[in-house]
Hints:
Blueprint: H1 3-14, H2 19-26, H3 30-38, H4 46-56, H5 60-64, H6 94-114
Amino acid sequence: MTVIGKRIKWLREQQKWSQIQLAEKLGIHNTVLSRIESGEKKGVDHHLISDVADLFGVSTDFLHGKTDNPTPFWKNASVREESAAFLDLDGLSEQEVEEVKRHIEFLRWKAKQDKGM
């Protein structure tokens, strides 16, 4: 499984969407999505990667595995630099709180993957 495939699958599962549901949203056939998620399809069109990033509100760098932070860089501009700032959710919108939760869930999932669980 490729990094892109793993991350798309993780994002899809976080939304509790089937492959068919996500494929419909992306305008592709579900077998194409299945091949991407399994790693069988190696070359993923950059337009599709952009569409996935836009749909889930994540960065393309996250999908490519260049960062473990799913939040696009332009959304990070308002994040406080204080230690343990993620515990202080005051002033964040509902969407921003959901992004924090999604990032924490991804880190948990990644830790399990790294440990072979």
